[in-house]
Amino acid sequence: xxxxxxxxxxxxxxxxxxxxxxxxxxxxxxxxxxxxxxxxxxxxxxxxxxxxxxxxxxxxxxxxxxxxxxxxxxxxxxxxxxxxxxxxxxxxxxxxxxxxxxxxxxxxxxxxxxxxxxxxxxxxxxxxxxxxxxxxxxxxxxxxxxxxxxxxxxxxxxxxxxxxxxxxxxxxxxxxxxxxxxxxxxxxxxxxxxxxxxxxxxxxxxxxxxxxxx
Length: 214
What we know:
The chain is mainly alpha-helical. Helices cover 71% and strands 0% of the residues. It has eight helices and no strands. It has helices spanning 4-27, 38-50, 67-91, 98-102, 104-133, 141-155, 162-182, 185-202. The relative contact order is 0.16. The model has no long low-confidence stretch (mean pLDDT 92).
């Protein structure tokens, strides 16, 4: 348990970082493109992680995933993809495969770069960093999962639509729990990247990309 003074400071830091920055971008639409801010925030977070006595850089590339975990999450991906496809087909058919149809090369580039430069960075921030830096705030495992999902979801207010907030809350619960069970942020980043490719490929990317070229 953190001392009361340190607990207050850590709580204030948590609120400013995970709620203040997204809110600032949300209130000032012309401030900056949301994706640009990931790199500077990551650099700041790496500096803080370096100061954590139990943190090792190899945690960011750890991959000790059992075959059972791979199979279970593979099944979750397949079911989720079918649900997304069915939803777009029945309720928003005009956007079905909108990005690959309109700009296949941009979609291909997104599939190559999104998992590395966006999904991986987000997983480090909302899973590894949050678990390490703010462990004193979330003493029970379920509190970490909830805090991870809420902050991850809240970040998506910068896309100005409720769909992205709802979907990322569900995704945040899933990614946080997978990270909690496996301890591999690399694995959660791979899952995050795959789900990104599914949503952008099947016609829901407009909820996560301002001015998507379709």
